[in-house]
Every structure is written in C-alpha cells, then in structure tokens.
Design a protein that fits this description.
The protein is α/β, with parallel strands linked by helices. It contains seven helices and nine strands; from the N terminus they run αβαββββαβαβαβαβα. Strand 1, helix 2 and strand 2 form a beta-alpha-beta unit. The protein starts with a helix and ends in a 9-residue tail after the last helix.
C-alpha cells in the first residue's frame, strides 16, 4: 500500500512539474481578439507550452451556444441556462481620431464641426446617431460618411487620419495610451455594459479553462482594466 501511495504521489509531482496539456478553445469578438487578446496571449502560451490554443472570432458578439467552445468572451451577454457569466471589462464607446485629424478641426472646440468631418461607421449609422443625441445634436447628422463591415478596417482608417469613428476604449486602449489616437469628447455609449466571461457550467472545473480564466483576469488587472471589486 505504501509503495502504491508513493507511486501516486510521484506521479502527481511529475504532472505538476510538466504543467497542463491539451486543447483549449476560446471564443471572443473579432475586435477583442485583434485589439487586446492577440497582443497578450503569447504570455499564456509561453507559460503553458503544452496547451494548444484555438481562438475563435465570433461574429455574434454575445455568442455562447457553440458546443465546440470551452469558454467565451462576449460583448454584453444573454442569460442562458447552464452558462455562468461574470463581468470582465467595462467599456465605453466614444468618438476617437488621430491627433493629426483633430488638428484639422482645431481640436473640435466647436462640436458642430462634426458636420464637416468624415464619420466612419461599423455596419450602420446607429452608434453615431445615438452618440450625437447624447451630445445634444440631431441624430440625422450621423447619417453620412463611410460604412465598413469590419471594425479592423475602421481602426486602420482612423489611425491613418481618414476620419473619426465611435471607438471601443478597451480594444483601442493601446493606441490611446501611446498617443496614436485621441478622445476629443467626454460623452460615451454603452456605459452599462462591457465584456463578459461566459462559460458552460460543465466546463467550469476544466483545469485548462480555470487556468485561462485566472491568467486573463490577472492580465487585465495588470492593465488596470478589471471592474472594481471583482476578483
């Protein structure tokens, strides 16, 4: 019996030393994948070289029903049975542009100068219409400009000084911090929502999922992006 227990203990030590292994599939919105996750995930991969990571970019930003996914990062969330959800990152959507573009309009000291700016849109005019109303301007001012179907294209255009867009302060955070982008106005949209971590209850005890969750929260805390009071 002692011999068997010693073998089990030795096996457990080896397993701990060797670390986790297997395949982990994570779903997240394309913007979060390109604007944040891909800039940080190497750290997780280097810590766990035996874990094969698969990152799925979900077009449905609140997707949590793909059975091939182990855990989901979503924008907002829809209540679903047997899916655990917790707030991950608060986010604001607000007009963002390059410093050079800002200079062209004298810093947008007069907010009405937006009627002469090139407004960039993702999908439709909704975000600009909603933001303009919050700012006290007519929504119809937002029904012009250029509509793109891909957020990454909008991001490239904004960086290049081709216009001003309603941007996500989480996934465009690095560009804001290094001065590539600026925030001319204070009003913002979607302040009551943000990114969530959603996981099928059956996967909550999966050691790979637990390790990814712990790493993700620590990394976001390092970036000062976790909601206050959340562990």
């Amino acid at each position: 019996m002692r011999r068997a227990l010693s073998m089990i203990a030795a096996s457990s030590v080896r397993a701990a030393q060797e670390g986790l292994s297997g395949t982990l599939t994570v779903s997240c919105p394309p913007g979060f994948a390109s604007g944040w996750l891909c800039l940080h995930i190497r750290d997780f991969a280097e810590r766990h070289p035996d874990i094969v990571l698969r990152i799925h970019s979900a077009r449905n930003l609140a997707e949590t029903d793909n059975p091939e996914i182990d855990t989901f990062i979503t924008f907002g969330h829809e209540l679903r049975a047997h899916v655990a959800a917790e707030p991950l990152v608060k986010v604001e959507f607000t007009p963002l542009c390059s410093p050079a573009y800002l200079t062209r309009f004298n810093g947008f000291g007069d907010i009405r100068a937006l009627q002469h700016a090139t407004l960039l849109h993702i999908g439709d005019f909704t975000d600009w219409e909603d933001w303009l109303q919050i700012a006290g301007l007519p929504a119809e001012m937002g029904r012009r400009g250029i509509c793109y179907s891909d957020m990454n294209v909008v991001y490239t255009a904004v960086l290049a000084g081709e216009g001003i867009a309603i941007g996500d302060t989480v996934i465009w955070r690095q560009a804001l911090e290094n001065g590539q982008l600026v925030r001319p106005f204070s009003p913002s949209l979607h302040t009551e929502t943000g990114y969530y971590l959603c996981t099928p209850e059956a996967n909550l005890e999966n050691p790979l999922v637990r390790e990814f969750h712990n790493w993700l929260k620590r990394r976001l805390e390092m970036n000062h992006m976790r909601p206050e009071g959340d562990g």
